[in-house]
Amino acid sequence: MALKTGDVPLLKEKLDALARTYHDAYLATDPLGIAHAYKGARDREVAAFLSASLAFGNAAAIRMSVKRIMERLGPRPAAALRSHDPEKSARLFEGLYHRWVGPEAIGSLTQAIGAALRSEGSLEALFLKGYRAEEETLHGALKRFRERLVRSLPATPANARVERGISYLLPDPESGSACKRLHLFLRWMVRPDDGLDLGLWKGPETHQLIIPLDTHIARIGRLLGLTDRKTPDLKMALEITRNLKRIDPADPVRYDFAISRMGILKHCPSKRDIKLCAGCPLQDACRYWRRLPRRRKDAAMQARG
């Protein structure tokens, strides 16, 4: 374990304050904000799954891509996908690209969602078919959920670009990948409706969630002593989650939004800026700040005024 027992109370105090500071203040710029615009639970679920699936790259570009998809699905996306015609899916999203993911891959993803809605009524019901309350995390349930989604897809054309797109949108949890976007979707669904997350799913428990590991969580997690691992994979995600459970056993990933926001907004940039460090709310718990000589800390604090 990277996190020392004596550091747990201080880190809890700092992370609790950070979570209060960020909470939903930046929701309008986050892909999750798109799902909040819908009233119905199933429409929110669909919007959230599409938003999480495309949550790679610049946040503004992600929101733009998802909004364009939602516009083509209309005001009731769940109903639209329930009656979705697989033969027309690629044409429906013609001209839509999010980085290397094109209309065929987007069409395949929506086909899988539509198949789940027709057979089970919701993505939640499909997930619960593979959910085990006794399992420590949702890793196994996510693996079974993903397998069912992929099995519902028709054979795609022998086109490497299409195959790459759909395999990226629906990564395999068994590959050892952190599967950040799938775990992000689970966080939105499972955590309670607190003004940020949606709390739509009632079966899985918050203590089973795994941190949605991105580059910001990985880097800041190392600075906070939540992990000593170098590679941002499933093992790192599990280590960070286990250490966060020492702070909040019932709801360890509730800090995800606030920590990632620190990186996204460059309040904690990858290129260290000691002037920013001097005003950082996490500085007392940060390994980098602790290692700095006293004279450099004092000079940075004086420079900030």
Structural description of this entry:
This protein is an all-alpha fold. 55% of the residues lie in helices and 0% in strands. The chain is built from 17 helices and no strands. The protein has helices at 8-22, 32-36, 41-53, 59-73, 77-82, 89-92, 103-120, 123-128, 139-151, 160-169, 180-190, 215-223, 234-245, 256-264, 274-278, 287-291, 294-304. Helix 7 (103-120) crosses helix 10 and helix 12 (215-223) crosses helix 14. The longest helix has 18 residues, at 103-120. The protein is globular. It starts with 7 loop residues before the first helix and ends with a helix.
- What gyration radius follows from the Cα positions, in whole Å? 20 Å
Distance between the termini: 37 Å
Largest sheet: none
Q: How confident is the prediction overall: mean pLDDT?
A: 91
SS summary, helix count: 17
Proportion of strand residues:
under 5%
Report the principal-axis shape. globular
H and E string: HHHHHHHHHHHHHHHHH
| Low-pLDDT regions | none
The tally of beta strands, per DSSP, is 0
Helix-strand category: mainly alpha
What portion of residues is helical? 40-55%
Distinctive features:
mainly alpha
Question: What's this entry about, in short?
Answer:
By secondary structure, the chain is mainly alpha-helical. The protein contains 17 helices and no strands.
What topology emerges from the helices and strands here?
Blueprint: H1 8-22, H2 32-36, H3 41-53, H4 59-73, H5 77-82, H6 89-92, H7 103-120, H8 123-128, H9 139-151, H10 160-169, H11 180-190, H12 215-223, H13 234-245, H14 256-264, H15 274-278, H16 287-291, H17 294-304
